[in-house]
Write a structure and sequence with these properties.
Elements (H helix, E strand, L loop, with lengths): L1 E5 L24 E7 L8 E7 L7 E10 L2 H8 L14 E9 L13 E5 L14 E5 L3 E3 L6 H4 L3 H14 L7 E5 L4 H12 L3 E6 L5 H6 L4 E4 L5 H7 L4 E6 L6 H6 L1 E9 L14 H4 L5 E4 L9 H12 L6 E7 L3 H10 L5 E5 L3
Parallel strand pairs: 9-10, 9-12, 10-11, 12-13, 13-14, 15-16
Antiparallel strand pairs: 1-15, 2-3, 4-5, 4-7, 4-16, 5-6, 6-8
Amino acid sequence: MYRSRCAGWVCQVGVAVLWCGQGMEDLVGGTMRAVVLSGPGAVGNLVVRELPVPEVRPGWVRVAVKAFGLNRSELHTRLGLAEGVTFPRVPGIEAVGVVDGLDPADGGCGLAVGQQVVTMMGNMGRTYDGGYAEYTLVPVGQVIPFSSELAWEVIGAVPETLQTAYGSLTTGLDLAAGQTLLIRGGTSSVGLAAAALGKGLGATVLATTRKAANGDALKAQGVDHVLVDDGSVAEAVRALYPDGVDAALELVGTPTLPDTLAATRVHGTVCFTGMLSNQWLVRDFYPIGYLPKGVRLTAYGGESGDLPGEVLQRCLDEIAAGRISLGPTHVYRLDDIRQAHTDMEMGHTVGKLVVLTDR
């Protein structure tokens, strides 16, 4: 296993609009290496196979994948918890790489062969093959161009993590300078990114971890108050802030949501974003009995279109300049996919897991 540390925060740099071009004709009829999930179950169901390189068609773009990040969504797919997935399937809800093929009819798409891009969501890895491959074919509308000289393992840790953290803090919580932010599930990749972005916005950040040993990693991310989570942190939060926090980001799921709500002040907001516990349904939900008086509950689940291109570009630029870090990155090779999934499932690592394709 290789390890690297993502260094680097977010907003405005223009993205160049380039001409459209055709793909590489020598790939037609060729093969690629891809991870195939035969069906729900154990990590043994993930197998690296040779598959045909996907052919370009109108409205879709072929990306030569350089790296892809792992996400809990893909664990849900492997465990059979995701709806609407058909098998066998190449998983992966995100990927980074370069444009490899475009249909000539898509001349106004603003992309060119060789352009660096990220792609994510839009049913990638669910109803059509996703990013766990050397090439992936995705709709043009879910591709975001960028320009960076960062290593691919660094770039691969950014897209979905940034999209989720940025959207949760802005759309979900409307976080403002001077406010207090509680992150429930602070050592997850989204939790670490949210801490960095929250500090960048001028908030005071509290973050939870189940392991006291992870406190130093959270402090390194700028967290002001580390809370060891034994299932209940509301009392500890109110010992620091008697009225409760202004905003809370719930990344663990429904088991801790009531306690997170209890840690939040009247007219404060809790955003339900993550499901690290693999539990996201509230049974027999009775709002008046469930929600503390005056505490607001929102949710966030974004798509590629929810991450502005200028936000992505600025984040990459800030990482390159060493002005922000989205947290540790743990890097694997395609043949290590089972180990990577095991590490994700068992919580062996702090931060983002990224796989290089060696393309």
